[in-house]
Amino acid sequence: MDRILVDTNIVLDLLAERKKFINEAQELFTLSDKNEVKLYVSSLTFANTYYILSQQMKMDNVRKILRKFKVLVEVLPMDDKIIDLSLESDFKDFEDAIQYYTAIENEISIIITRNLKDFKTAKIPVLTAKEYTKLR
């Protein structure tokens, strides 16, 4: 079973129902719902998703959405080592570095994102949700 770290943009595609990308995100999360893949998110993703969604809807609704969402993923911790690796990395985007090193430190085999260009130096596969679901 693939162990996949899902980047924040994919989570927001699903939860904010971004019209252009929601179908691809739904396909990925359906695989998790069917226990065909194991999906993970960093604790940073959970915090960022809460913040972004709270700008668009009521806090109670955001919490309700995130409680339901949490059954589809496992939230991975962020620690000193991940922060140190991210600070010392060549990643231009610090958030992407945190995502990457969260995956590496937790032996995740794939990262799913729409932001492929920022993961050019990744040593594990980085795919879009659409690319991944087509491979299955």
Helix-strand blueprint:
Elements: E1 2-6, H1 8-15, H2 22-33, E2 37-42, H3 43-54, H4 59-70, E3 73-76, H5 80-88, H6 94-105, E4 110-112, E5 126-127, H7 129-135
Parallel strand pairs: 1-2, 1-4, 2-3, 4-5
Task: Tell me what the structure shows.
The structure is a single chain. With 136 residues, the chain is α/β, with parallel strands linked by helices. It has a single domain (2-135), classed as Rossmann fold (3-Layer(aba) Sandwich). It contains seven helices and five strands, in the order βααβααβααββα. The protein has helices at 8-15, 22-33, 43-54, 59-70, 80-88, 94-105, 129-135; strands spanning 2-6, 37-42, 73-76, 110-112, 126-127. The chain has a five-stranded parallel β-sheet. The N and C termini lie close together (12 Å). 32% of the residues are buried. The mean pLDDT is 97.
Quick description:
This protein has 136 residues and is an alpha/beta fold. It is 53% helix and 15% strand. It has 7 helices and 5 strands.
